[in-house]
Design brief:
heterodimer, A: 503 residues, mainly alpha, two-stranded antiparallel sheet, B: 247 residues, 8 helices, 2% strand, transmembrane helix (chain B)
Chain lengths: 503, 247
């Protein structure tokens, strides 16, 4: 009990400090509006919003304010994706794909306003559930994480890359793993972290410090998005936003069990390393369809179905921040961009992180969810208008934004060359259905994996059983092996046959 | 032919590329010391904490996965289609679209941004991309990308050394002239629409706000401070405006 009281007292201190600072609102409102716009415009994503703001605010304003901008944009963009899902049947972000299943049929029935109001409320509650989990579990996990040493960290980093590769791949899981390995390989460039041995620098001094995170993020997420979006877009048939937007309290109360369940699922999926909001939305939708009272009507305009995906994708944000703050392993692609911002500010997540930063993150998340709710309900009819803007009108501006954002982080023109190179590779990978997120997570976690793996071997005098003799390390090793084996086709067929026999 | 067949056919080429890449980097890794040596009484690394051990693991795994991908492509029978353009799903219109965008981006980053005023370079790029790609006409795409490539190539060829990048040069004027010509051409065409009419405004305002916010708001480095327009803005800011509020 004392633990929870202490947590709440700490949160309250951080929250009052945040809301009493007038500058907070400047950053929060502008980031929230930008985030909703990025989420609402098909062709722009939450990851791109956080990445671009990392380039702008990363190391240019104090980290306290940079976090307001980045988290505000993150929350706003995940929510903003629901606008085109409901009114155009085109998900604004991958996270809102499941929202379109029931949101658009509801809008077709003339209940677009109600659907938007419900998603706004579900997003608020989802974000708060994820944030509550962050507040409670981050400290418990931080206490445990002080016992997590190099062997566990190395295996967990590998697990994050493998899991992200497995779940983010549209085609074969092996392609996700290859993407993660390419990211890991990119992280090997520069001086190695233990012995300062130069690797793959080809006598170019710029490469001695390795690949910088921000240009890699910009190249991987922005450039393919721009190339993909610059085409003649036939404007979809936009449905009118009719009816009352403010949801009825009774409707929310009736669906509270669904909202709570979806919030828990979203947080849980978010806490898995490297798995994003889109997976959270679909998992929650699938569970809802199986266990929900209204499961048979999912896909036909079910309010329950709408709430399942929209609560979960926002709850995922809080969940994704848990492994980020505890272990430095991003829980989702936008969290990977957030980690980039922390890195360029020399904030090292893990047991040694300043507790004030965690409390500030929680306070910002709560304020962001309230701001999103207010902005969403008050200005929904205004935001709907931007859905008519064709991607070709704003993507060239995004290109200029990424260029100046990348340039100003520190590496100058060389960072732009890096951005262009990574962008070319990412575009090629997109064309061949290789997921990009594992590559970025590989780049971010590569240094950690290299350092902790070799340190483990150094501590054990080259004895690899160190990964088996420590209980937590053994557990992570089993998880890694199980994940790889689960994707072997022969084993998959065997398991399916066994399943059929048992059933 | 379905998408899966095309993907497997593309996997054939991708796996060959990845095999070559991992082979090259495994060869590169051999130059990093792996075995323990003792020079002048000082022991170097053991094999297990060498800087080469993790790269060997990564490129080895990449090689194995590439071989599996290649085998999968061959076993599925779709590798046989990899030699034909149709087999891997080559779409000439799409290649032209992506190729022209890539050429414009490369000319912008490699030629224009380091050498030409950022507002002019970005204005030209924005104009070219909005006008060139809003209708899907191949001719327009070529003309738009050609304008950026022309300006970028001129700057790149005329002022290649880094020592010349930040000085005011004729490349600013050339890029500005191409930008004005392209805008005039777009605005005088009979098929102009609302987006074309809004285009010059977006092309001027977006880079202007971005570069001034970055330079004077966040006080960050911006590309080509000696550019035609930015140097005038900077001069006006420090000599005329700044003294007003510093007093």
């Amino acid at each position: 009990m004392d633990y929870f009281v202490a947590q709440l007292a700490g949160f309250w201190g951080a929250f009052t400090g945040l809301v009493l600072d007038p500058v907070t609102y400047l950053y929060m409102l502008s980031a929230m509006i930008l985030g909703i716009v990025f989420g609402a415009l098909p062709g722009l994503t939450a990851t791109l919003a956080v990445t671009i703001l990392t380039g702008f605010f990363g190391n240019k304003v104090p980290i306290d304010y940079a976090l307001i901008a980045l988290l505000g944009a993150y929350v706003g963009a995940i929510y903003g994706g629901s606008y085109p899902s409901i009114l155009l049947n085109i998900p604004g972000t991958a996270a809102s794909a499941a929202t379109a299943m029931d949101g658009h049929p509801l809008a077709r029935q003339g209940r677009g306003g109600e659907a938007l109001g419900l998603t706004t409320t579900a997003s608020l509650i989802g974000t708060l559930v994820g944030t509550a989990a962050l507040l409670v579990f981050v400290w418990l996990l931080l206490a445990i994480s002080s016992n997590i040493a190099s062997p566990e960290k190395a295996l967990l980093a590998l697990f994050g890359i493998l899991l992200s590769g497995t779940l983010m791949s549209e085609d074969l899981a092996i392609k996700g793993w290859i993407s993660g390995l390419i990211g890991l390989a990119m992280a090997m460039v520069g001086l190695d972290p233990l012995l300062s041995e130069p690797r793959y620098t080809f006598d170019w001094s710029y490469l001695l410090s390795g690949f910088q995170v921000v240009p890699v993020l910009m190249g991987a997420f922005a450039v393919p998005q721009i190339i993909e979006g610059l085409r003649t877009a036939r404007p979809g048939e936009m449905l009118a936003l009719t009816g009352r937007i403010l949801p009825h309290g009774r409707t929310i109360l009736r669906h509270l069990p669904t909202i709570t369940r979806s919030g828990v699922i979203g947080t849980g999926v978010g806490a898995l390393p490297g798995v994003g909001e889109d997976v959270a939305g679909w998992v929650s939708y699938g569970v809802g369809k199986s266990v929900g009272r209204d499961g048979a009507n999912y896909g036909k305009g079910s309010v329950e179905g709408l709430l399942c995906s929209e609560t979960a994708n926002n709850a995922c944000i809080g969940g994704a921040l848990i492994p980020l703050l505890v272990l430095g392993i991003p829980g989702s692609p936008p969290a990977a961009a957030l980690l980039g911002a922390l890195k360029i500010n020399n904030v090292i997540p893990g047991p040694t992180i300043d507790p004030a930063i965690i409390m500030r993150v929680v306070a910002i998340m709560v304020l962001a969810s309230i701001t999103m709710f207010a902005v969403g309900l008050l200005t929904a009819r205004l935001f709907v208008r931007i859905l008519k803007v064709p991607p070709v009108a704003f993507l060239p501006v995004v290109m200029v934004l990424t260029t100046i954002g990348s340039f100003s982080v520190g590496g100058g023109i060389n960072d732009l060359y890096l951005m262009l190179g990574v962008g070319a590779v990412a575009t090629l990978m997109n064309a061949m259905k290789y997921p990009i997120a594992p590559l970025v997570i590989g780049v971010i976690l590569g240094g950690l994996f290299d350092e902790t793996f070799r340190r483990s071997m150094l501590l054990s005098d080259g004895d690899p059983t160190i990964f088996l003799t420590r209980p937590m390390a053994a557990l992570f090793l089993v998880l890694n092996v199980a994940l790889i084996l689960s994707q072997v086709p022969a084993l998959q067929r065997l398991l399916t046959r066994r399943g059929r026999v048992l059933s | 032919m379905d998408d899966k067949s095309q993907l497997r056919a593309r996997d054939f080429w991708a796996s060959l590329g990845l095999i070559a890449l991992s082979g090259f980097f495994i060869w590169q890794t051999t130059s990093i010391p792996l075995q323990a040596t003792r020079v002048a009484g000082v022991s170097s690394v053991q094999f297990y904490d060498s800087a080469a051990v993790v790269p060997y693991f990564i490129f080895g795994a990449l090689l194995i996965l590439s071989l599996i991908l290649l085998a999968n492509s061959i076993v599925s029978g779709d590798a046989a289609r990899a030699l034909s353009g149709a087999g891997i799903g080559l779409d000439c219109a799409e290649i032209w679209r992506i190729g022209t965008i890539a050429a414009a981006m490369a000319a912008y980053i490699l030629g224009l941004v380091p050498r030409v005023d950022f507002i002019i370079a970005s204005g030209l790029l924005i104009t070219a991309l909005i006008w060139g790609y809003s209708t899907g006409q191949a001719g327009r795409m070529g003309l738009a990308a050609g304008a950026v490539v022309l300006a970028g190539s001129y700057a790149l060829i005329r002022h290649l050394p880094q020592s010349e990048w930040n000085k005011p040069h004729d490349d600013d004027w050339v890029a500005l002239a191409i930008w004005i010509l392209l805008t005039t051409w777009a605005l005088t065409r009979p098929d102009r629409n609302r987006l074309t009419r809004a285009m010059p405004l977006i092309a001027v305002i977006a880079p202007l706000i971005l570069v001034t916010a970055m330079a004077f708001g966040f006080r960050q480095n911006v590309p080509n401070r000696g550019g035609l327009i930015f140097s005038q803005i900077e001069r006006t800011y420090y000599l005329d405006l700044r003294p007003l509020w510093s007093q």
